[in-house]
């Protein structure tokens, strides 16, 4: 894919419009002004370097978080052109860094495909940074320019000689724009691990240099997306070797890797020009259609299997246990929004259907034993889906006969607006009783759960629907459950709190509930509706003062501050030990409560963690506990 270096020149940087609106309306360009938008700034700069790699001119990218939350991105690509731009009569570096929609991505002779914001990215990063400096290593010289909130602080200067080549960008986000300027190393690590998987052989080095004991990760995967699928299925039992093929049509390149395991959840990641499309899009639609058609074609050829499954398999039947990575490269991608969560090019569906069908048909013809294993898995899924449908129908009929759709143990609130309503999922009847008495009945509902719910990681939907506690929870939430029924718009509460005891059993129940939401109600997490309540661990009384503390560290610091004063320390092990007034004051009062919002910053890491903690494999769970035991703050043995 390598192109001659002369193909990327100053004349190819096309100018579309200026930078004026960016600082006034940053959300239009970067999506959000919270930590999501903050991290997007880094991705946009790195995407330019990855574009160089896709064009065959870059083999290594270094990303560092420096002290004071400054980001440095360095690559060994060709470097931004430094010549005077023919239209603007200034250095092309300044054009790229200060003019919106100026870049090499509008003409296909510079980059055949690219990620990023199509020329918007680096100029927007510059506009939204308190300070930024760029260095270009090119033709034996180091060219540098500095900016303040997008404004050049002088011309491009040659500041030295070099034998290297590439581009270095350092920027400090503007605290007056973003709600936070604190970068999360784990969030960045997740994105750049993905990029390394998607770009076979490209080395990405990510470092956090804010502390003396700096963290560092180095990613390079010679297996590309095959390595990605193997990584995702590392702690599962795969049914076959990874199916992998790469095909192209009409300037669209599609690379696909698929592997079924003995698990019950679907795990598909979609990418367009290295951009993660969380909501899928036309490439996913084409893939699903081809997978369904091709597997049904091969089902018809196997008379033994036809006896087990006389009717055609549906798309739902093929989802159970599948792990897939779909990566497409498109010259002119179109997305649903600036955040690029969904690919919308209409023509891609048909192209993907053709390419996927060809690749799968060839593999299935050459590997009949694998084909049969996959079909047998899908047939079991079809039978379980039918059983789940009957279980749902039975639940509905039972609700009608009992004269109501809501579970009897739910103490509902009087508020009917979901946006103003809260649901507390509480461990046990004792704590549930205190919560019901202590709550604000106007907008707070209480649902006590008896014991531990089913581990959904090890069960199909039909068995899950047979669990009384889960049926109760689904009924209370109002969303339904399962791909064909779940509807986030029917959620009865826009704040759902998991409230369990601060002991081993409480932690287990919390993990079981989190697993359930992650596997079967992920949109509740994605919408920001799910929280974990944080009841206090200690009540310390000294004199007439009572103070609630939420960790051992807080307790130790507080006792130290008291000096020689005598204090009575009460350690709470269960919510039931608090009376209703204490539970309201510490855990349910919006003015005082401490809660953790459940977020999905890293889908890959979340998938792996839930599989380790709740799956069948013991050894990975043991290793996980050994590695993370030291990080546990409050553990009752």
Automatic annotation (TrEMBL):
<comment type="function">
    <text>A type II topoisomerase that negatively supercoils closed circular double-stranded (ds) DNA in an ATP-dependent manner to modulate DNA topology and maintain chromosomes in an underwound state. Negative supercoiling favors strand separation, and DNA replication, transcription, recombination and repair, all of which involve strand separation. Also able to catalyze the interconversion of other topological isomers of dsDNA rings, including catenanes and knotted rings. Type II topoisomerases break and join 2 DNA strands simultaneously in an ATP-dependent manner.</text>
</comment>
<keyword id="KW-0067">ATP-binding</keyword>
<dbReference type="InterPro" id="IPR013506">
    <property type="entry name" value="Topo_IIA_bsu_dom2"/>
</dbReference>
<dbReference type="InterPro" id="IPR011557">
    <property type="entry name" value="GyrB"/>
</dbReference>
<keyword id="KW-0547">Nucleotide-binding</keyword>
<dbReference type="InterPro" id="IPR003594">
    <property type="entry name" value="HATPase_dom"/>
</dbReference>
<dbReference type="GO" id="GO:0005737">
    <property type="term" value="C:cytoplasm"/>
</dbReference>
<feature type="site" description="Interaction with DNA">
    <location>
        <position position="455"/>
    </location>
</feature>
<comment type="similarity">
    <text>Belongs to the type II topoisomerase GyrB family.</text>
</comment>
<dbReference type="Pfam" id="PF00204">
    <property type="entry name" value="DNA_gyraseB"/>
</dbReference>
<protein>
    <recommendedName>
        <fullName>DNA gyrase subunit B</fullName>
        <ecNumber>5.6.2.2</ecNumber>
    </recommendedName>
</protein>
<dbReference type="InterPro" id="IPR006171">
    <property type="entry name" value="TOPRIM_dom"/>
</dbReference>
<comment type="subunit">
    <text>Heterotetramer, composed of two GyrA and two GyrB chains. In the heterotetramer, GyrA contains the active site tyrosine that forms a transient covalent intermediate with DNA, while GyrB binds cofactors and catalyzes ATP hydrolysis.</text>
</comment>
<feature type="binding site">
    <location>
        <position position="503"/>
    </location>
    <ligand>
        <name>Mg(2+) 2</name>
    </ligand>
</feature>
<dbReference type="InterPro" id="IPR018522">
    <property type="entry name" value="TopoIIA_CS"/>
</dbReference>
<dbReference type="InterPro" id="IPR000565">
    <property type="entry name" value="Topo_IIA_B"/>
</dbReference>
<dbReference type="InterPro" id="IPR014721">
    <property type="entry name" value="Ribsml_uS5_D2-typ_fold_subgr"/>
</dbReference>
<dbReference type="Pfam" id="PF02518">
    <property type="entry name" value="HATPase_c"/>
</dbReference>
<dbReference type="GO" id="GO:0005524">
    <property type="term" value="F:ATP binding"/>
</dbReference>
<dbReference type="InterPro" id="IPR034160">
    <property type="entry name" value="TOPRIM_GyrB"/>
</dbReference>
<keyword id="KW-0460">Magnesium</keyword>
<dbReference type="Pfam" id="PF01751">
    <property type="entry name" value="Toprim"/>
</dbReference>
<dbReference type="GO" id="GO:0046872">
    <property type="term" value="F:metal ion binding"/>
</dbReference>
<feature type="binding site">
    <location>
        <position position="501"/>
    </location>
    <ligand>
        <name>Mg(2+) 2</name>
    </ligand>
</feature>
<feature type="binding site">
    <location>
        <position position="427"/>
    </location>
    <ligand>
        <name>Mg(2+) 1</name>
    </ligand>
</feature>
<dbReference type="GO" id="GO:0006265">
    <property type="term" value="P:DNA topological change"/>
</dbReference>
<dbReference type="GO" id="GO:0003677">
    <property type="term" value="F:DNA binding"/>
</dbReference>
<keyword id="KW-0963">Cytoplasm</keyword>
<feature type="site" description="Interaction with DNA">
    <location>
        <position position="452"/>
    </location>
</feature>
<dbReference type="InterPro" id="IPR013760">
    <property type="entry name" value="Topo_IIA-like_dom_sf"/>
</dbReference>
<keyword id="KW-0479">Metal-binding</keyword>
<dbReference type="InterPro" id="IPR002288">
    <property type="entry name" value="DNA_gyrase_B_C"/>
</dbReference>
<feature type="domain" description="Toprim">
    <location>
        <begin position="421"/>
        <end position="536"/>
    </location>
</feature>
<dbReference type="InterPro" id="IPR001241">
    <property type="entry name" value="Topo_IIA"/>
</dbReference>
<keyword id="KW-0799">Topoisomerase</keyword>
<dbReference type="InterPro" id="IPR020568">
    <property type="entry name" value="Ribosomal_Su5_D2-typ_SF"/>
</dbReference>
<keyword id="KW-0238">DNA-binding</keyword>
<dbReference type="GO" id="GO:0006261">
    <property type="term" value="P:DNA-templated DNA replication"/>
</dbReference>
<dbReference type="GO" id="GO:0005694">
    <property type="term" value="C:chromosome"/>
</dbReference>
<dbReference type="GO" id="GO:0034335">
    <property type="term" value="F:DNA negative supercoiling activity"/>
</dbReference>
<feature type="binding site">
    <location>
        <position position="501"/>
    </location>
    <ligand>
        <name>Mg(2+) 1</name>
    </ligand>
</feature>
<dbReference type="InterPro" id="IPR013759">
    <property type="entry name" value="Topo_IIA_B_C"/>
</dbReference>
């Amino acid at each position: 894919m390598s192109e001659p270096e002369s193909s990327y020149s100053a004349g190819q940087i096309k100018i579309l419009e200026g930078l004026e609106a960016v600082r006034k309306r940053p959300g239009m360009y970067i999506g959000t002004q919270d930590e999501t938008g903050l991290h997007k700034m880094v991705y946009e700069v790195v995407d330019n370097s990855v574009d160089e790699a896709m064009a065959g001119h870059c083999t290594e990218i270094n990303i560092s978080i420096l002290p004071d939350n400054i980001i440095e991105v360095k690559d060994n690509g060709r470097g931004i052109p430094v010549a005077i731009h023919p239209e603007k009569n200034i250095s092309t570096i300044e054009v790229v860094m200060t003019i919106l929609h100026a870049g090499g991505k509008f003409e296909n002779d510079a980059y055949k495909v690219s990620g990023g914001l199509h020329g918007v990215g680096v100029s927007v990063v510059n506009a939204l940074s308190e300070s930024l400096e760029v260095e270009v290593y090119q033709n034996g010289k180091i060219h540098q320019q500095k900016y303040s909130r997008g404004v050049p602080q002088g011309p491009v200067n040659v500041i030295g000689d070099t034998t290297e080549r590439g581009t270095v960008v350092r920027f400090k986000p503007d605290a007056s724009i973003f709600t936070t300027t604190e970068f999360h190393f784990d969030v960045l690590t997740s994105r750049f691990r993905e990029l390394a998987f998607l770009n076979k052989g490209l080395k990405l080095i990510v470092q956090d240099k804010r502390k003396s004991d700096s963290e560092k990760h180095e990613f390079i995967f010679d297996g590309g997306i095959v390595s990605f699928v193997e990584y995702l299925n590392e702690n599962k039992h795969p049914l076959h070797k990874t199916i992998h093929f790469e095909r192209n049509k009409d300037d669209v390149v599609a690379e696909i890797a698929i592997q079924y395991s003995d698990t019950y959840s679907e795990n598909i990641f979609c990418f367009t020009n290295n951009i993660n499309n969380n909501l899928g899009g036309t490439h996913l639609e084409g893939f699903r259609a081809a997978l369904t058609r091709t597997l049904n074609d091969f089902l018809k050829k196997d008379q033994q299997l036809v006896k087990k499954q006389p009717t055609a398999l549906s798309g739902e039947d093929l989802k159970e246990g599948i792990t897939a990575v779909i990566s497409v490269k498109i010259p002119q991608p179109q997305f649903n929004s600036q955040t690029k969560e969904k690919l919308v090019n209409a023509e891609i569906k048909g192209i993907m259907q053709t390419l996927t069908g060809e690749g799968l048909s060839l593999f299935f013809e050459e590997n009949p034993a694998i084909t049969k294993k996959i079909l047998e898995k899908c047939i079991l899924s079809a039978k379980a889906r039918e059983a789940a449908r009957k279980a749902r129908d039975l639940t509905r009929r039972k609700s009608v006969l009992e004269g109501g759709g809501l579970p009897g143990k739910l103490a509902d609130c009087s508020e009917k607006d979901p946006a103003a309503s809260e649901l507390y999922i509480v461990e046990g009847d004792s704590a549930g009783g205190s919560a019901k008495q202590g709550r604000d009945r106007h907008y707070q509902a209480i649902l006590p759960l008896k014991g531990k719910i089913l581990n959904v990681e090890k069960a199909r939907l039909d068995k899950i629907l047979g669990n009384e506690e889960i049926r109760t929870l689904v009924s209370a939430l109002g969303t339904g459950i399962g791909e064909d029924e779940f509807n986030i718009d029917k959620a009865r509460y826009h704040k759902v709190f998991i409230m369990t005891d601060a002991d081993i059993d409480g932690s287990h129940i919390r993990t079981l509930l989190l697993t359930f939401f992650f596997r079967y109600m992920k949109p509740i997490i994605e919408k920001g509706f799910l929280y974990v309540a944080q009841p206090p661990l200690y009540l310390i009384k000294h004199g007439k003062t009572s103070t609630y503390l939420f960790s051992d560290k807080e307790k130790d610091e507080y006792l130290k501050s008291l000096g020689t004063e005598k204090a009575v320390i009460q350690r709470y092990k269960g919510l039931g030990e608090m009376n209703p007034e204490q539970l309201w004051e510490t855990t349910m009062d919006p003015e005082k409560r401490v809660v953790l919002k459940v977020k999905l910053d890293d889908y890959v890491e979340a998938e792996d963690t839930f599989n380790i903690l709740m799956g069948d494999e013991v050894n990975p769970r043991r290793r996980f506990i050994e590695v993370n035991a030291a990080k546990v703050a409050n553990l009752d043995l």
